Amino acid sequence: MKRRLALTAIALAVGAAASLSACSPGTASGTELVVTTFGGEWQKNFTDAVVKPFEKENNVTVKQVTLYSSDALAQLQAQKSSPQMDVVFFSGGQETVAAKDGLLAPIDPAALTNAPDLISQATAGLAGGRGPVVQITPMGLLYRTDKVSEPTSWNDPFNPDYRQHVAFTDLSNSYGTLGMLMINQARGGTIDNVTPGIDAIGQSTRAGDAIITKTSSDLQQAFAARDIWMAPYSQDYAETLRKAGQPVGFAIPKEGTTGSFITANLVAGRSNTELATKFIDYALSAGAQEKFVTGMAYSPVNTKAVVPADMQSKILAGPTLEKLVRFDPEQITGNAAAWQKQWQEQITR
């Protein structure tokens, strides 16, 4: 009896140890993925386009954690020795920093079945250990179609005809930074000298010709209740405003534009890399990309994705996307604090 009890105790101990090992930090169940999300409408649409169908097809559970890009990077850095997430989405170029810090696992293009169908911008970062671009939303000028003719230049927000009807976005918002960089470029500045852009916006706001918004919801409120007619912002949000009943158009200025490149990144040190890679590949499929178009008004990175007729005039797609300016994420990250200081000095003085 004593021998039988001893053997039972050993078996229970081994089982408990195995259970603890399976749940220990840095590992994950083979049937669960932990992925980040941007929350709100993005999460709702991404769940419908990728998460639910992927769960059903692969008999897995996808746990979503709401983290904006800078917070997601901070979490990865804090968890470096014991990562808790499998896939991280970035929209501001943070994948460059994460890859250099060894926080990401490189993805072999051969592991992505959709790689041959993607635009070159989507896979350009794989060689550097970064994840592929799964969504693109170009920057442009949002404008009230019942108040303003279609704008043609990044200088149009400074037209005296639009005084007190323009909104710029704070640099704490990545769209605000990208909009400022395009205005800066149109006024002769460079990524190493953003004074022309920041000074122009600062002078406009100090004169009472424009307001500053911080978030997407602030901008929506400005169009709905503050008589705003024009704002540098993103393609996807123009559609959000239209769905909210606002008569808003989206124009790409003649000087060209940049965009927000959303990447899906494989976290290093996790046990579910094969399943996580499959999840990323699913997000790159033509079917998922088509849902990004109709649900979020994002530009598809899969060339086989079909853009519905009613969306073709609302989004950029195809070869045009290859012409988007993509500012160096490292330069943006490295200069962010200095730009913010310069911005605050101009906006608040």
TrEMBL record:
InterPro entries reported for this sequence: SBP
Classification via PROSITE patterns: PROKAR_LIPOPROTEIN
SUPFAM superfamilies on file: Periplasmic binding protein-like II
Span of the signal peptide: 1-22
Transmembrane regions: none
Keywords of the record: Signal
Matching Pfam families: SBP_bac_8 (PF13416)
Name of this chain's protein: ABC transporter substrate-binding protein
